[in-house]
Amino acid sequence: MAAGLPADLGIAAAAFVGTNIDNCVVTMAMVAGAPLERSHRIAIGQIVGFIILVAAAAAAAAVLYEFSPAVVGLLGLVPLAIGVRGLVGLRAAGPPGDAATVPRRRRASDRAVGRSLTAAALVTIGAGGDNLAAYIPLFRVGGTANLLAIVAVFAAGEVAVTAIVLAGGRHPRTRTSMTRLGVVAVPVLLCGIGVLVMVEAGTFSLL
Predict the structure, then answer these.
(1) DSSP state letter for 171
(2) What integer is the mean pLDDT of 40-54?
(3) Could you tell me the pTM of the whole model?
């Protein structure tokens, strides 16, 4: 197994990058649309969600369980539901220019952008169908050294992603762009990610 370790590391790195680009973009948008003091909570939520995905993949690999891609795609309902809830809440809160609706609008904006650890974790898990599909085979390569090396790659990758999310989401230009797009940008992006996850997994074939 040792001879295949470099190859396993390369595959693990490629799998990590390929399955975390979408989540990096969404989480960065959440950070950019939230107050600066909330940014670390959102970043921690992403880490928690990723750890849950890796643990689920490892458990499935250990018991030789196979997830149906179409069923895994149902995870896309999570960001879709959060996005729809945010859009509905913004609409129900009233027009942004009405002073009487300011408190309701502020609360609705908080929910729409997802300014919490829980929201970030749920979004990460919901967008993680491709993570499960890619990680389960990796955890079946066998050998303690290989598994520890793969986990180390994932840990290093998650540290890098968290740094990118915080740096990008807290950057003045990113925050200005989010302000221009408005609070609807994040829920619309969440809806798009949710639908994309289900389309790529073939979930709509279950209907």
Answers:
(1) S
(2) 94
(3) 0.84
Phi, psi of 141 (to 5 degrees): -70, -25
Q: What is the DSSP letter of 207?
A: -
Structure tokens that stand for 198 in this block: 């289900």
Are 166 and 41 in contact by the 8 Å Cβ rule? The answer is no
Cβ 145 vs Cβ 5: under 8 Å: yes
Residue with tokens 């798009």: 192
Distance of CA 112 to the CA centre of its chain: 15
Q: Which amino acid is at 30?
A: M
In this structure, how many other beta carbons lie within 10 angstroms of the beta carbon of residue 163?
Answer: 11
Going by C-beta distance under 8 Å and a sequence separation of 6 or more, which residues neighbour residue 67?
60, 132, 133, 136
Cβ–Cβ < 8 Å for 53, 135: yes
CA 79 to chain centre: 9
